[in-house]
């Protein structure tokens, strides 16, 4: 781990020097503390040994004195008294030593727990809670050696999530992490205590299966797919590709599915006069500002759904109050002004309305986070917090920066008039909004 730089731009290496929390530093300081405890114990034992030697010397001397036949009764009494007090002193020292050793032992136990915790954090992937690659590498060496020595079978199972980066980019890290956890859980649930399950790379998982024949490893792979991931059937387009270098075809998947216990349906590619119906072409239509073409391929209007959040309240002052919605993590349609159909799905104003909407950054008011701002024609009501579904019908123009607010408002008047006309021509709204999940 390298020294990081704080938000103020100053490195915090100096600040953390006194209390360095890097695992390696904590480990070293913990080992140092254990060393100190051991030195203390040795010191104490050394002192105890010196005490015992003195005691033994005193006993020896008293023994010699007692063996003198001329010893008087009084002297005998003195000697026995000395012996008893020396014994009491040693007993006292021993009991103090015992107490100190007990507390040192407890301290070492605490330090040992800290090392165990640190070790487990160092070898465990924080997202999936399975082992990290480092521990996998180490375990694999050990597993190979053991399998060789004992002539036992050893299998390795690898799972790779195809195009995971794209999934992450499209749906966000939070959902991506959930997928990783799902795969890790599926693998862990289907393996046993002797197996080592690890995250090998960003989107790769491995399981070391000691004492496992290839047939049993194949069965385990089937269990992971069917029971762990709950996969029963897959629908793919005829142009589907998977695996390394995207070498696997839809037909290969069907064969693979047969051996792994899941069904595969290959959907034929449909084409219209715009070309093949594919998510790529649909996205391109939207990026180009051709929502009708996207709708022709989708079989319904492309919709942006979501909750209305409070904006800067400028629209109300302009005479154009808008329902503001996020387009975060959605495929962004071409920025600009659209004629839209609006479905208000919740609240007292539930219904379908005509509208004009702006998708983009609102250059009139600086560079803003892109969003969707919809004006509902002939509507008067509060929509904050309600769930709306906005169908993009036709692209009217790009967003613009006008010389004055009056010029913007005049343009918005014009946009709404055009939207009215366009929306009148599409007749009855042909596609019902999807039900709320
Ligand atoms: C029909 C329509 C046309 C719009 N055209 C533009 C535009 O050309 N340039 C721009 O910066 N903002 C445009 N906007 C966005 C408005 O500036 C924005 O909705 C308004 O300022 C309200 O913002 P607020 O809800 O954050 O208060 C348009 C909005 C609508 C509904």
Description:
The chain is 49% helix and 19% strand. By secondary structure, the chain is an alpha+beta fold. It folds into four domains: 21-123, Helix Hairpins (Orthogonal Bundle); 124-229, Alpha-Beta Plaits (2-Layer Sandwich); 232-269, no CATH class; 279-425, Beta Barrel (Elongation Factor Tu (Ef-tu), domain 3), CATH 2.40.30.30. It has a six-stranded antiparallel β-sheet. Strands 1-3-2 form a three-stranded antiparallel β-sheet, with helices on both faces. A hairpin with a 5-residue loop joins strand 5 and strand 6 (248-249). The chain is elongated. The two termini are 43 Å apart. The relative contact order is 0.06. The model is unreliable at 1-18 and 432-437 (pLDDT under 50). Flavin mononucleotide binds at residues 311-315, 320, 322, 324, 337, 356-358, 362-365, 373, 375, 399-400, 408, 412, 415.
């Amino acid at each position: 781990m390298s020294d990081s730089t704080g938000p103020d731009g100053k490195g915090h290496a100096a600040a953390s020097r006194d209390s360095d929390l890097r695992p390696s530093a904590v480990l070293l300081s913990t080992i140092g503390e254990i060393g100190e405890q051991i030195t203390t114990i040795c010191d104490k034992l050394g002192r105890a040994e010196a005490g015992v030697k003195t005691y033994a010397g005193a006993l020896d001397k008293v023994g010699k004195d007692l063996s003198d036949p001329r010893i008087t009764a009084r002297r005998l009494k003195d000697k026995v008294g000395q012996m008893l007090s020396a014994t009491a002193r040693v007993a006292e020292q021993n009991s103090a030593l015992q107490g100190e050793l007990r507390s040192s032992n407890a301290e070492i136990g605490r330090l040992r727990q800290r090392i165990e915790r640190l070790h487990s954090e160092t070898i465990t992937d924080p997202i999936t809670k399975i082992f990290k690659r480092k521990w996998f590498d180490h375990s694999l060496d050990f597993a190979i050696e053991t399998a060789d020595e004992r002539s036992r079978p050893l299998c390795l199972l690898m799972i790779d999530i195809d195009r995971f980066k794209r999934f992450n980019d499209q749906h966000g890290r939070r959902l991506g992490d959930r997928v990783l956890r799902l795969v890790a859980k599926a693998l862990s649930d289907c393996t046993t205590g002797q197996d080592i399950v690890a995250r090998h790379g960003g989107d790769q998982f491995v399981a070391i299966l000691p004492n496992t024949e290839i047939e049993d490893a194949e069965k385990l792979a089937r269990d992971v797919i069917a029971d762990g991931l709950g996969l029963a059937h897959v629908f793919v387009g005829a142009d589907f590709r998977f695996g390394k270098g995207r070498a696997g075809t839809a037909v290969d998947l069907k064969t693979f599915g047969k051996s792994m216990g899941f069904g595969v349906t290959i959907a034929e590619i449909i084409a219209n006069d715009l070309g093949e119906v594919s998510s790529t072409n649909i996205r391109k239509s939207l990026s180009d500002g051709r929502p009708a073409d996207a709708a022709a391929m989708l079989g319904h209007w492309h919709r942006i759904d979501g909750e209305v959040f409070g904006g800067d309240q400028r629209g109300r002052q302009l005479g154009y109050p808008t329902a503001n919605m996020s387009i975060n993590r959605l495929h962004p349609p071409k920025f600009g002004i659209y004629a839209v159909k609006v479905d208000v799905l919740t609240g007292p104003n539930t219904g379908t309305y005509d509208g004009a909407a702006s998708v983009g950054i609102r250059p009139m008011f600086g560079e803003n986070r892109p969003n969707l701002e919809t004006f509902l024609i002939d509507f008067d009501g509060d929509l904050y917090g309600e769930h709306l579904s906005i169908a993009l019908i036709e692209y009217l123009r790009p967003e613009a920066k006008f010389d004055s607010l009056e010029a913007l408002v005049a343009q918005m008047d014009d946009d709404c008039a055009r939207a009215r006309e366009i929306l009148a021509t599409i007749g009855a709204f042909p596609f019902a909004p999807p039900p709320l999940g």
